[in-house]
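Q: Two folds, back to back.
A: First:
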Amino acid sequence: MPPFRLALPLLALLMVAGCESSEPPAEAPLRSVRYERVGADSAAEHTTYSGVSRSSEQSRLSFRVSGPVLRVQVEVGRQVEEGELLAELDSSDLNLRAAEAGSSVAQARAQSRQAQADYQRVRALYEAQGASRSELDAARARAETAQTSMRAASSRAAVSRNQSQYARLTAPSAGRVSLVSLEPGENVSAGQTVIVLESGAQQEVTVAVPENVIARVARGAEVEVSVAALDDRTIPGTVFEVAVSAQSSTYPVTVRLDEEPEGLRPGMAADVRFSFENEEEALDQVLVPGVAVAADPEGSFVFVLDTDGEGFGTVHRRAVSVGELTDRGIVIEDGLEDGELVVTAGVSRISDGLRVRAPALASDEPSPDAEEG
């Protein structure tokens, strides 16, 4: 076979391979980074505590009577309306007690009528001098006792009827179910929390603050909240409640979010960043979190972020000279300037020149008044 005929199939294969290799590779999704501005607020101390998000109004629901669970109408995550049935106990025994109490009321009412009739008859005889004074007093006492017994029986019957109604657990307000801890057939006790309903319009995060820091936390203080499930988005918040008593050497602090980000649900992990003024700290001292600094054979370095203002940016490796390690971070003696943005999470997973997602810092977002001006 002539050589040129053997070359034709090989040439065709090379052309196909060239066409296939000309297609651009699929782009990997951009990594989201957490970062902060250094130097500009270097006179402030920053401390972060972890917590869990929840609704501002949380109802821990329980039955007012004990008994076996007949049915459960909801599951976790279900949105319910006010008055909707959530769960129900088997009320057979309660209904029997209510019926028995009703029978007791009927019997007591009959006895009261009989005693009242006897009293009226003895009273008529007494007026006609046919009965003594003691007989009249005894008849009156029997009538009053029967009347009291009838009222007591009526009260017991009302309690029995209420207990039958207490076997139904309904939603006190509209909200979302965050916990269901009962199953059909299970025996529950009165007062035992079986369903938790999140019904507040605002979201909160509760964190545990140690006793050596709690004195510096004040109600109304502004904080920053980041939620890992929302790509570490930073959300402004305000300290709403500071506990006055400790729980296991820490004090619960409740932070109420100033915004309602889409996708945030009760139970999501969140970090709350507190800023405390430190007048003794020199203003020209730059501090960064310890997780922002890495080291290799070439020395210590950080990643500085250049943003484009549209939620994206590029990270650049920057060599730095580090000083002492304090309880508020590492002192940077050289390599960083006031106002630069430094990556504070995931340093080991990024590289020089990498393009990343960079959500705007809450402190950098313009206020409505500034936009109008």
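A: Second:
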Amino acid sequence: MSFIHLEGKVAVVTGASRGIGEAIARAFVASGARVVLAARKIEALEAVAASLGESAHAVAAHTGREEDCKRLMAAAVSHFGRVDVLVNNAATNPYFGPMLDIDGGAWDKTFEVNLKGYFWMAREAARHLRGRDAAGAIVHVASVAGLEAAPLQGVYGMTKAAILSMTKTMAFELASSRIRVNAIAPGLVHTRFASALTENDAILSEFLRKTPLGRYAEPAEIAGAAVYLASDAASYVTGHTLVVDGGMTTS
């Protein structure tokens, strides 16, 4: 058996109906895990779950709502008996433009999903794991936008920077409970979520100029990092941010 695998583990992956979340869910199942896929719209989720067979289960949930986070974790435990891994991936970026021009509604939505949702889901996972006296792993999908300036995505970048801070503190506070907490900071990834960047020739050209590998990533290239951090191969890794950006932040 491969050293890096997820045999016997049950995971919850949010934002799993497409993009990075779907790629992570597929990689988890391929690595031996059973996975609860979550997103707001059940139709797309069920299509992904159906393609993965009995190892996948779809639950509609809006992680920007605390009660939905509690319901999602309870549904996962009810269906598969327990949860060992949480991947916080659901995110939103409703505003693209100068940071000072964002309106209150877009500000609140960004923080509710990207930051509050991550916190609420991580808290539910930690409470469940502690209640079982079980080791586990939490993986937060952040962004290189949280590591450096994020022009035209300022508030989104603020939430991602906060996730990196939350990752470190959670890792410290949950270590005694054998719960590891890590983050992934992807660079530019070819998804519908990032289409404002990948479909703008001027912006894309600037991103590629700064990226030594000279291209954007595909979602599956981020999924491998999640499999590693969720697996026992990363048993001594916690509080870490794994940057997967084609070398963009090295310059």
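Q: And?
A: Residues 10-244 form a domain with the Rossmann fold fold (CATH 3.40.50.720).
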